[in-house]
Amino acid sequence: MKKVGLLTSGGDCQALNATMRGIAKTLYNLYGDEVEIIGFEEGYRGLIYDDYRVMKKEDFSGILTVGGTMLGTSRTPFKLIREPDENGLNKVAAMIHTYKKLKLDCLFVLGGNGSLKTANLLSEEGLNVIGLPKTIDNDLWGTDVTFGFQSAVSIATSAIDSIHTTAASHGRVFIVEVMGHKVGWLTLYAGIAGGADIILLPEIPYDLDKICDALKERGKAGKHFSIIAVAEGAISKEDAALTKKELKKKREKGEKYPSVAYELAAKIGEKTGQEVRVTVPGHMQRGGAPIPYDRVLSTRLGAEAARLFDKKKFGLMVAAKNNEITSIPLKETAGKLKTVDPKSEIVRAAKLTGISFGD
Ligand code: F6P
Hints:
Helix content is 41%, strand content 16%. It has 13 helices and 11 strands. β1 (2-8), α1 and β2 (35-40) form a beta-alpha-beta unit. α1 (16-31) packs parallel to α11.
């Protein structure tokens, strides 16, 4: 009899259920009734506090198209994982204890950067762990794409599409703020797909004057409206030159804005005299059903994770590379971010077609 654990950790995304289904269906096909799947509630919280349920075969049916995660999720920050909880509990020891008590043969972790760092830690502590790359941010190093990303691109693109018609009717500047604090993949893809005129990413600090120049140029060319796609973590050149401490101080002292889009709107309005409006799709970008691309990707990643388990290969993250599904050691991906290279072909193509990055 095989016994495996399953958990979904960190911010949710559209194809978590589809990925768990991929793992489970493959395991049931390989082992029939000779496999038991334990689902931990709300990510690592369930593993730490021994909160789980024994899954049934039927739990994995009818969920291919369902967004969110049937197990629930939570954020368990990696930087606090070695810190005792409020009752003095050693979280790492507790996770190892639960795994051993349940006599698990493997733990499948569906997670993003922080969650896979914890997965790697558990693997280094001797547990059999296999990671699966989840996040709408697409910022996991070692995989070309993460599940959830393209579904979020689709939602952020529809937001920009909808803004297009109203922006055109009113001749306004619209700023659409897209998720992504540290990386700009989602903004880059949705910005290009939605025909944004200006795209602002954390990886390419912007110059406010350049943004205003680009808006003026559009006006001169007879375009009466403009759309700016800005990543949550976009930053000005001035601010990017500051140390973390200096930036914190500046933000504490300066005028407070709900987010970067509102700050830009105020500054652009002031500098250009144009009417500027802000749209923030926010968590909508993580919600709803996975698009077919993600359903296929998740099925492939899930099947590969189960296949690796069958081959007794652990300490790995399944990954998509050059349209093939493969795997890389967790220790190679843990802690590394995949950022947008400002010199990459995709940024060049965007610039060649006239998109400004405000740089
Ligand atoms: O999961 C990734 C992400 O959606 C980021 O794009 C976003 O910045 C963040 O999570 C939002 O986190 P929370 O759901 O905790 O508000």
